[in-house]
Amino acid sequence: MNYYSHSKTLPDGTVVGSKLLYVHTQGVLDKALHHWYEGVEFGFDKQLVKDLLEDIVRLHDLGKYTPYFQNYLLQRPPIDNLLKQHARFGSYAAYHRWLEREEPKFSIVALLLIFRHHSYLFPLRALMQKLEDANNQKIFSEQLKSVIDKLPIIQEDARLKGLKEVLHYPSLKTVRKLTRVWEKREANIRDYYFCNYLFSLLIEGDKLDASETRPYQKITIGAGHVDQRFGKPLLDDKTGLTELSQNEVRNFCRAEVVSHLEREDILNYYIFTLTAPTGIGKTMTALDFALKLKVKIRAQEGHEAQIIYALPFINIIEQALQEYEETLSESEANILGHYQFADVFGDQEDGDEEQYHQKLMKLDTWQSDVVITSFVQFFETLICNRNKLLKKFNHYAGSIIILDEVQTLRLDQMPLIGAALFFLAKFLRSRIILMTATKPKIFELAEAEILSEEGEKVHPLELLTSHESVFALFNRTAIHPLLTALEGEPEERIKAFVSDLFASSWDPSQSCIIVCNTVRSSITLFETIEQHCKDKGLSNPIFYLSTNIAPIERLGRIKAIKTALENAEAPILVATQVVEAGVDLDFDAGFRDLGPVDSMVQVAGRINRHNDEKRKGAPLHIIDFGECQKIYGKLTTIQARSALEGKEIIPESEYLELITRYFDGISGRSSFSKARKFFNSMKTLNYDAENREECPVSAFRIIEQSGDYRSVFIELDENSRKLRQSYFKKIVSEIPKEEFDKRYKRAFQQHIISVPKLYTNGLEAINQFDENILVVPLELLSSYYDPNTGFKRETDSKGAFMF
User: Fold this and answer.
1) The predicted structure's pLDDT at residue 664
2) Alpha-carbon torsion 57, 62, 68, 71, what sign?
3) What is the DSSP letter of 215?
4) What sign does the CA torsion over 727, 310, 365, 354 have?
5) What is the pLDDT of residue 802?
6) 656 in the Ramachandran plot: left (φ > 0), alpha (ψ -120 to 50) or beta?
7) Handedness of CA 354, 358, 364, 370 (dihedral sign)
8) Per-residue confidence (pLDDT) for residue 443, from 0 to 100
9) Residue 461 has what pLDDT?
10) Which domains does the chain have, with CATH numbers?
11) Which has the closest alpha carbon to 712: 756, 683, 754?
12) Which residues in the chain come in under a pLDDT of 50?
């Protein structure tokens, strides 16, 4: 008799088996072992762990041998939707196999992972509740009866022995005792990484095999690609640093970073920091280091390390993709971009034999040499219980991870993220490079708040040893605190700022950037400055940039600003924090609303960016529109003011000291209780909970989602209308999802912005039964959307527009 794992429907409507069950099981095992990394260090015997993985894979689909599942698969009556369930059947067998081997922890791991391999991971207490359910016991009993006479045949087909001895329902008393002992006495953060790693290998292998997607075989990439593009860096005598040009300083920094690879003990380090001023070429420096480190790992450990590069914002992800592709163009390296606007089809022709679902699976499971992705993808896979994301968790093992612009992470998350990265390096042996111009104390906070209680200390290796000397070289900008000059509500402060501080501190012959904390304030400021310049007869072009603008318009706006800067038109840019990282604009002067010190320093990185001697000490004025506490919290506001108070001018050479003082104050005053709760959930495998105050793993988000916001599609022109219509057709199945994704998805998403609910009165959803995306139709565009500042944040209700 043939047993099948999957089926297909023939043109005449007949359903037939498409893959034999034992072939699928072996395929999953082959793929899981393909991605297995020998270097993982969980503290268990490695052969024992591989035996556990093999049992989990071989038994994960054991329930598919029941006639109930085979009838369901081949659409043969009778079909019983309860008894056709298959995931749990094999979990009981795996549990008893490892209980017999006197490995109680492994028995619970096998039970949990197989039990949930088609869903999200849940906590051990939820597993116990499921086992206590009498219906589950009845289902198992009926399924066992249906196969008991065929066990010899099944054993031969499944390449398993001794099934009869292990196929019985778990003793509730034994499982309860094991889970309670684990949670109360043996909880260990190692178990989170151990379970997630094995679960990832199982579900990735399962989905790759089911979709007939071949695992990617990483290639050998040479170490010299950055040298070929930019020249080989030379490590000059440090005493001559003050005489170097900015390009020569950039060369020096790269040389010093890669010089660490000459250390005999370099492969003993797993956590690195790269601290350097903005504009010093950190992206290519980190890639150079990673490629050369990759060669050493290959030579000494026999492993082809994947490079994973994560960044916070889409615009800088796309810039990084371009830089990596240009640098590695002469290699055969597969570079994969995985973020919101990622193109699953790439440059391949329509006639390519590889199917859409296979390309999508490759994207979702990071089948490549190099991955460039978002912080959302990276961190929400690291701290996660979701099946969809955990497919790629195993790719962290043995990889080289570069995290850029880490100062953009929320302050309250830093201890948790620092601890999660530390244990990622410890157990999965990832090598992690944290890059920043502002040196946030992620690992120091992690050690103070979490790691010290775990008996751990962090010893990162700073790759730019001379970073303090390098920072001291620069005098491109200077911070001028003007914190006491404004009073009243934000709108009153904005008007007073424009008529007084802006008018007196800004020279109309200079380009200028002004950064606000909120979209609402930025719009008010833009309109006020626009009127001020009109009243004064000034012809400076005025630009606006924030997430209130449709993404498709932002890139064009940045190009227009660059053109105005290059043509010496002295443009004024009013923006929100969206410009604080990765936007290559160079202004003469700037203003920034009070905020985190590292954010203020990032804005300074958009001023005199190219180190023009004539603009030496270009000013960044810090003002206070009264909204810092609303956005960043009381602690940040107090510490930012404390760091700046008593200073008339802070030159760039003192920025590092300023940032250190700011983070020292924060780490000494904050409890970070939420970060500790999340970490405890990881440690105790509290994957999910109804009470979100427990901070279960499932509740972690790198960007806090607010129910007070709605996604709105902006119909800018006739082409936008066609995109909206195509999306609707996808929803109602008039066109397949594959066609929409291939032809329209990227452009469609670039028309979506997030808007507070109170401003969306009168807007209808594209389709209320789907993702509930609202739409501003072309007919109402002028009522809802301003061509300069984007979505109109007005609370008066407008008439509904129905589709």
Assistant:
1) 79
2) positive
3) P
4) positive
5) 32
6) alpha
7) negative
8) 93
9) 96
10) 4-210 (1.10.3210), 225-471 (3.40.50.300), 476-652 (3.40.50.300), 709-791 (no CATH)
11) 754
12) 344-353, 797-803
